[in-house]
Amino acid sequence: MASSQGPVSSTGAKLGVKTSKAMPRVPTKSYTEMLFEFSDGKGYDISSIQAAENNTKITLDPDYQMRWEITLGASIKQQCGSITDRTHYIARIPKGFTLIFDPKKGERHVVGHPGGMGRDFWYHNVGEFAPHALWLAAPAPYDRSKCSCEPCKKMLGKPKAKESKKPAQKRKQPAASTSTPNTTASRPSAPTTTAPTTTPAAATAATAAAPATTAAAATAAPPAAPAAVALKIAANAEKPVAPAPAKPPAKPAAKPAVARPPTPPPPVEDHSIYRAGEVVWYGTQTGIWRIGLILSRARETTETDTWVVAPLGHKILNQESSVKPAAQMRPFHAFSLPGIDIQELQESAFAEVDWPAFVHRYAGSNAHKQQLVGLEASKMAARDVNVSFSTFNRLGAITPDGRRGSYGGIFLGPEMIRVGDAVRVTRLIGEQDGSPDIMEIKHIVDDEDCLQPKFHGDVWRSQIVPLEAPEQSSQPQGVDLVRQIQITNEVLRHQGGRLDWFLVETDAERVEADVRGRFYVTFDLLPDVKASLMEGNPFDDGTQRVNARLRPDKPFYIGRKENRRATFGDSASLDMLDLGPNVVEG
């Protein structure tokens, strides 16, 4: 991969947004350009793609390409950059690959893989393409078996992940949804996305979570920083979000009466973004990121945000827990989960493996091989946890027969989510650009079949508006959403603008597949954003930099577990797991 030495003009470049004259001047942001010296792209022409898909509406998408390339640059930096690297990169799409747009489905894809022009060889988002980009950037020879992107696997005939033993439940769309959400960002980084390496769970950039990035060591180092190129980005100049319509959308056909869930007690105030029982990434002394389980707080003080973290793997490996400050931790969705490198394990769930026998056969007494087994086991355990859930603090029944319950909280995959929390959800109303909306949860209940959870609450969307714009009459009450506004506006007012929450849906419902994960206050997740704003750069709320939980209609879905200990099984030593006095599971 090479760096461009000449300036790149951004005159007339669009990022799929419109500039409002009422908005304050958008500052200039400098980017270093990344170029790929090698590419295996085939450069399929658009007419051939249209003919293959029998869809003449498919078009090239040069207007969106710059935004896509900026995201790819952030992804590569996340995997190859250092903590001290404050350079912003724009990674140009390699020669022979093309960004296309399908207006029928509102989806963007990258085509050009030598396997063919059919959909099986399309990249549906940056997270799917990043592993291939890193493989292209690696030194020759180019052994395709070392590339872990899905199209390369299909081209080589590698087996697909085993289908779930449990049939997927059909998704019920709310009546308000009039179009299919854009999957450019609504399908980010399934846990099978990997980088081309045999050393899992290694990442060197610790300052920001890029969309669909993989916590795996890249085989190619980032290019030396050349003279930065000026590039104007109208990131803040999005179309204002209209307040919720006065007339509610049409409601679906009447269903049998369901009791309103009882109102839970207010959540306990928590000064940290981390919670006991959550899966996180944590930094090691060697600079590698590992996957761990938070067992408990190390100190119960409001000044020290420190946790006891147990490595995921298998308890027979006797991996020791460690005390980690929050500064050395990242939420699980901050990085993508690397794929399984040992072929024998690729089609198995964690619980299906006879780990003592496998460790004896594969590693014996070899300490290095035992460590590799532990890394593979940690990825498998994290993947299975990611597609599981368990509830806690049952508040009562919502149906006469008592089957369906209401809960004060849920362990949804790697995260603990409580009533009153804010979560990232699929956008069902308005512009379908792949961005999530934010739901402030009021109720968590069982679905009609008691197989999956449902979430109820108000749905919000943030928008930067001019400082003099009228204030919204309704505002969320949740701690995180209030903090997001307060901290952001401390800086934005100096730029002539402010961040507002716009109410999009009231008393909305989202099924499990629509919930991408917890919402994190930008400045907790990305500490450098405030300094960047002070320098005059556009605001980045970070929501598209965080991965989504694996959808429950994907392979390996597990679903409900009895409690958190049952979810982790033998993947960690759970003797010291302490969820706190306010968590009653079941």
TrEMBL record:
Transmembrane segments: none annotated. GO terms for biological process: silent mating-type cassette heterochromatin formation. InterPro entries: Clr2, Tscrpt-silencing_Clr2_C. Residues 174-206 have a biased composition (Low complexity). GO terms for cellular component: mating-type region heterochromatin; rDNA heterochromatin; SHREC complex. Residues 407-521 form the Cryptic loci regulator 2 C-terminal domain. It comes from the Eukaryota. Residues 242-251 have a biased composition (Pro residues). Pfam families: Clr2. Residues 156-206, 241-270 are annotated as: Disordered. This is Cryptic loci regulator 2 C-terminal domain-containing protein. It comes from Pyricularia oryzae (strain 70-15 / ATCC MYA-4617 / FGSC 8958).
